[in-house]
Design a protein that fits this description.
heterodimer, A: alpha/beta, three-stranded antiparallel beta sheet, B: mainly alpha, ABC transporter involved in vitamin B12 uptake, BtuC, Arc Repressor Mutant, subunit A, Diphtheria Toxin Repressor, domain 2, two-stranded antiparallel sheet, 19 helices, 2 strands, 72% helix
Chain lengths: 260, 430
């Protein structure tokens, strides 16, 4: 049997005294177009970051294609939220995309002609080739997102992890992005998006992970995105769990300080 | 020039140029990483290191003092990291605390030393504001080698520093240890600051890091070009400062370097294209002019629409557009030069070009009113004001998008027809 593109078991993450994810357990098979759905503050972005080791996790195991992240890092491309970076940074669109290639090279190696061609092809795929020489601060939200996606394409991975790719994006860009995701999946890639629009989720995606601090459901979208699961996903935060967790964290922190 | 014939001054001069280049370069990254103040705190933190090294070894040779400065800068950097990352102090508070604490420590030592009146202690207080003339050739060599090493590291690691400054999350996900580059950046910052102690001094070193970079940012949107400019500004300021201190040896060098760097910044603020004050003012003025022109054209268009035949008297225009009154004559002349209207004894008459432009502006106005009322649900009595400014801003591209959104509408919310986009063949019915 083919190995899951992403499998997560017993993942728990806390961030500054607050529980963010509580014992998460799911698998996403390859060739899926998967969305991670949940209300604000449900820990969707944190889930992606924890999988990629960008935030520390308290416990749990994450495997990509059955292996540790370090062994298959070249197969995984991450697209952070647009707001994470300063779009006033003096850099051109093509340079941002080329960063996808540079990340694959040792620091002393310059990019080759082939890398440049690849970067231009990626820009072409997202329809941004005419903007290659522009500065990034001139781009609209949707264009920024497409540039980020081009950078991920240029990395040449098999698994794409995208954090809120449709946030603040115009309708045209959203359509273009979805089309591209579907094309990628048809080519045998796997795409996982953090998504917050329940109306479009069943239209765009074929797999879903429902999340609200703990896992609500995961699986093919027609089985997982039901009225019942949506109700329990969006049915308010787990007040007691949050409180208990906060207590626990504070106590732990206190004992750590005592020891040191 | 006198300064060029003295080998020692020549050394000091080239040293200041090298320092200006590396500080200008590093300053660009400090600016983009929003760590401008870290340089200031670290520079102040060098002082206690210098004084302690002097007390321990009783020597003011640079190869004794600089390692001392390096060590205390690292201690300060470690404090900063500890306070912000482990203790979760806000970074501005942490910077303010570290800066003042270390500087106080240094000043405390310095006063102690002054009391004890060592014969060569005089060299130390020069470190506050820098004194290029006091440098001797083997000190200069230490400084020059460090500057060259700094530049080499910056050149080799340029791409990595740029990537990790722009998008650290992406870099870490791709396996580039961006926090290690943060540390490296801190290390480079410390080295630059320490190298600059002799020339600029601990108090003003941050200015040489940030001011040239801030000036360069006004000129360009391209990082390599920004670095070149910033290094150029830094090198010039450094060189000018040293020249001044050569002719007036009592003068501390640091303040002069800062004065020159600030001059570069002020000039950039004023005359830089696009971002400069003058360019912005000009843009604003020309937009105001455009608004006045288009308002006049629209007033004339309204007469045509109402069936009043040209020429139209100036009084009738001012009646419906009172804001035009003061500048009416200038606006008319401008439009005349554009060939959009003609002045006749009894008033004004639109030409064919003028009519076309008036129609376009009216179309934008009414399209925007329709859009506002349909898509944003603005009540109809507030529509006119909302459209009044936007009509001058819309472009043909935006018009096409608007037309897509409100297909098939040919009347504005007040029932007036929206002029069609096709250029009218028999537009002027005069």
């Amino acid at each position: 049997m083919e190995r899951a593109a992403l499998s997560v078991s017993d993942l728990t993450v806390s961030y500054r005294h607050k529980p963010v994810l509580w014992s998460i357990h799911f698998e996403i098979p390859q060739h899926c177009l998967c969305c991670i759905v949940g209300p604000n503050g449900a820990g969707k972005s944190t889930l992606l970051k924890a999988c990629l080791d960008l935030v520390p996790s308290v416990s749990g195991e994450v495997r990509f294609f059955g292996e540790q992240l370090n062994a298959v890092r070249h197969k995984v491309a991450y697209v952070p939220q647009r707001e994470e970076v300063d779009w006033d940074f003096p850099v051109s669109v093509l340079e941002v995309v080329l960063m996808g290639r540079r990340a694959r090279l040792p620091f002393y190696r310059p990019v080759s002609k082939a890398d440049r061609v690849l970067a231009e092809e990626s820009l072409d795929k997202v329809g941004m080739l005419p903007f290659a020489e522009r500065q990034i601060q001139q781009l609209s939200g949707g264009q920024q997102q497409r540039v980020f996606l081009a950078r991920a394409l240029c990395q040449g991975g098999d698994l794409f992890l995208l954090d809120e790719p449709f946030a603040g994006v115009d309708a045209t860009s959203e359509g273009a992005l979805v089309e591209l995701f579907q094309l990628l999946v048809a080519q045998g890639k796997t795409v996982i998006c953090v998504h917050h629009d329940l109306n479009t989720a069943p239209v765009y995606f074929n797999w879903a992970v429902l999340l609200n601090l703990r896992l609500i459901a995961s699986g093919p979208i027609e089985n997982t995105l039901t009225e019942e699961t949506i109700k329990s996903t969006y049915g308010g935060q787990l007040a007691v769990l949050t409180q208990v967790f906060e207590r626990l964290r504070k106590e732990q922190l206190g004992s750590q300080q005592d020891r040191s | 020039m006198e300064i060029l014939s003295d080998p020692n001054s020549l050394w000091v001069l080239s040293c200041s140029i090298l320092l200006g280049i590396s500080a200008g370069w590093l300053g660009c990254f400090a600016l983009l990483r929003k760590e401008a103040l870290a340089g200031d705190a670290l520079a102040h933190a060098a002082l206690p290191g210098v004084t302690v090294a002097f007390m321990l070894f009783q020597s003011h040779a640079r190869w004794v003092l600089l390692p001392g400065a390096l060590l205390s800068c690292f201690a300060a950097y470690g404090c900063l990291l500890f306070l912000t990352r482990v203790m979760r102090m806000k970074s501005d508070s942490a910077l303010a605390f570290v800066l003042s604490f270390f500087f106080a420590l240094g000043i405390f030592h310095l006063t102690q030393l002054q009391k004890e009146t060592y014969s060569h202690q005089a060299g130390l207080d020069k470190m506050l504001f820098g004194q290029a003339a006091a440098l001797v050739s083997h000190d200069v060599l230490v400084v020059a080698v460090m500057c060259a090493a700094l530049l080499l590291v910056l050149i080799v690691l340029f791409q990595r520093l740029r990537m990790t400054s722009f998008d650290p999350l992406f870099c870490r996900a791709a396996g580039i240890p961006s926090h290690r580059y943060d540390l490296l950046f801190g290390f480079l910052l410390v080295c630059t600051v320490v190298v600059g102690l002799d020339l600029v001094g601990v108090v003003l070193m941050a200015a040489l890091l940030i001011t040239p970079a801030a000036a360069a940012r006004y000129w360009t949107n391209d990082l390599p070009r920004m670095i070149l400019l910033s290094s150029f500004f830094g090198a010039c300021s450094g060189a000018f400062g040293v020249v001044v201190s050569f002719y007036a040896p009592k003068m501390p060098t640091g303040p002069w370097i800062v004065v020159f760097a600030t001059a570069f910044l002020l000039v950039s603020l004023l005359i830089a294209p696009e971002r400069g004050v003058i360019a912005r003012r000009l843009r604003h003025r020309s937009f105001q002019r455009k608004i006045r022109e288009e308002n006049l054209l629209r007033a004339l268009f309204r007469f045509e629409e109402d069936g009043i035949s040209a020429p139209h008297s100036l009084q009738s225009i001012v009646q419906i557009r009172p804001t035009l009154a003061n500048t009416l004559d200038a606006t008319i002349s401008a439009l005349e030069r554009l060939g959009e209207l003609t002045r006749e004894p009894d008033g004004l008459r639109l030409t064919r070009e003028g009519l076309a432009r008036a129609e376009r502006v009216t179309r934008y106005h009414r399209l925007w009113e329709v859009y506002l009322s349909r898509m944003v649900n603005i009540p109809s009595h507030m529509l006119h004001e909302g459209a009044e400014n936007v009509e001058h801003l819309l472009t043909e591209e935006m018009e096409s998008e608007l037309l897509l959104e409100i297909e098939g509408v040919n009347q504005d919310p007040h029932g007036k027809p929206i002029p069609q986009r096709v250029e009218p063949e028999s537009g002027d019915e005069k």
